[in-house]
Amino acid sequence: MTPRTKKNTNGRHPHTRSVSANSALLLINIGQLLTLRSPDGKSGPRRGSELGQLSIIEDAAVLCAGGRIVAVGTTREALRDRWIKVRKSAVQEFDCKGRVVVPGFVDSHTHPVFAQPRLVDFEKRTAGATYEEIAAAGGGIRASINGVREAPKTVLAEQCLRAFDEMLAQGTTTVEAKSGYGLSVEAELKSLEVIRNAARKWPGTVVPTLLGAHVVPPEYKHDRSEYVRLVCEEMIPQAANNRLARFVDAFVERGAFDVDESERIFQVATDAGLGVRAHVCQLTPAKLDWLWRYQPASVDHMDYVDQQDMEELRRRDTIATLLPGADYFLGLPHYPEARKLIESGVAVALATDYNPGTSPTPSMPFVMSLACTHMKMNPAEAIAASTINAAHALRLADRKGSVEPGKDADFAVFDVVDYREIPYWFAADKCMGTVAGGEMHGGQIPR
């Protein structure tokens, strides 16, 4: 396991790096280390049977320094390693006592900037109202607008940071965070600033996304084209120029934005150098052939998708991000057809869709459990979809999603002896601690 500098000759991360013991962290006695390393060295997202390949090392150890992974092997190798022996007093060591360690979860679809939970929506839904009926009555996304517009940035940032901390406590180390509840130029930019401010205080990694095209706000109900103009000519340029967003998203759905409006938005985003992601096929079927020219990093929800679009996705590195938490909370009988997508060769990911109206959960393990019980993914597929494929959904797979030398030192330690227990124990907090950027958080791991 000795860390040393090794020449990188293939354009990938070197196997080891030179490190300083002053900032080193060593995890030993890991019962199962799910490295998610590709057995055949492929660099793209996992598809088909590849999705279940976890590359497990038993009785494992991981050495980190400077926020990066520098060596991966067995505990026996680590304890015999001369470099570690000489510097033992300077290396922070955690004995995992046979627990399971996985790459830090990558939650690639969240909406964390809001002021209040939408309890009226929840109550109406329990009485039988549908998502679209609630929205038509003034609930839904529009119900969150005034809270975001009126709340000070400091208050929203505190709420956002609390959400990030709750995610971290359940094993998530990388989060995509969207705006989308302000729906004015000022409030959307404020939301992105809130995300940036919260991210600076959080040990994990945050990827900001502009979702000004969530729905048309009430004041533009009769002038949709003017609102689309604001998104294109003011929100996107300012978000790009101020480096407040890495992606632009749009909710392409009946009652939100149509194809023509979305195409205009995505073209402006592409011209501004921002990536594209899209909410599609959540409530109604839709053709996606118009979307591919914008090379979206992900297409999210995908509750309804036809064979032709699956064939196109099979040929692309665009990730189909499935969000079963929303189907669960909305009480929908239809979940995304994960098995059909996987067997068709589509690269799928999982995410929480954390938001106040349709999926108020910060828990990736709970989402993984839903994926297994309601979408018939197996536990290995659910873990890969929550780590390496989710990293591809954010175009961060060179840094995130697997435990390999050179990548960011992001892991989660679970108080279980078999990785299948992570989705098995639903709604149970089994995460003992999380390593983000090489630093341990949680405090439950015995030294």
Question: What report would you give on this structure?
Answer:
The chain is globular. The chain is of the alpha/beta class and 447 residues long. The protein folds into 2 domains: 21-103 and 402-441, Urease, subunit C, domain 1 (Roll), CATH 2.30.40.10; 105-393, Metal-dependent hydrolases (TIM Barrel). Strands 1, 2, 3, 4, 5, 14, 15 and 16 form an 8-stranded mixed β-sheet that branches. An 8-stranded parallel β-sheet has the order 6-7-8-9-10-11-12-13. It has helices at residues 75-80, 82-86, 119-126, 131-136, 145-150, 153-169, 185-200, 224-241, 259-271, 307-314, 324-330, 338-343, 364-375, 379-386, 388-393, 421-424; strands spanning 24-34, 56-65, 68-74, 92-95, 100-103, 105-110, 172-178, 205-213, 247-252, 275-280, 298-301, 319-322, 348-350, 411-414, 431-436, 439-441. It starts with 23 loop residues before the first strand and ends in a 6-residue tail after the last strand. The chain has 16 helices and 16 strands.
Provide the descriptors you would attach to this structure in a database record.
TIM Barrel; Urease, subunit C, domain 1; 8-stranded parallel sheet; alpha/beta
Query: What percentage of the residues does DSSP assign to strands (E)?
Result: 15-25%
CATH architecture of the largest domain: Alpha-Beta Barrel
What is the CATH level 1 assignment of the largest domain? Alpha Beta
- Percent helix, as a range, is 25-40%
From the N-terminal CA to the C-terminal CA, the straight-line distance is 21 Å
Largest sheet: 8 strands, mixed
Find the CATH superfamily of the largest domain.
Metal-dependent hydrolases
Number of helices: 16
Shape: globular
Model regions low in confidence, pLDDT < 50 over at least 5 residues:
4-21
